[in-house]
Amino acid sequence: MSDVQLPNSDKSALDEPDAGRTPVRFRNPGLPAHRHRNADVDPRAARRAEHQVLVLLALSALGTLVFIVAYFAVPLDGTFATLQVSNISLGLGLGCGIFFIGIAAVHLAKTLMPDTEMIDERHPQRGTDAEREDAAAIMVQGGHESGLGRRKFVLGGLVGAAALAPLPAVVLLRDLGPLPGDDLAHTLWDEGVRLALDPSAEPILASDVTIGSVFHVIPENLYESEHFLDEKAKAAVLVMRVDPDVVQDDPSRAGWDVDGIYAYSKICTHVGCPVALYEQQTHHLLCPCHQSTFDLTQHCKVIFGPANRALPQLPIRIDDEGYLVAQSDFLEPPGPSYWERG
Question: Tell me, what's the pLDDT at 60?
Answer without folding.
Answer: 95
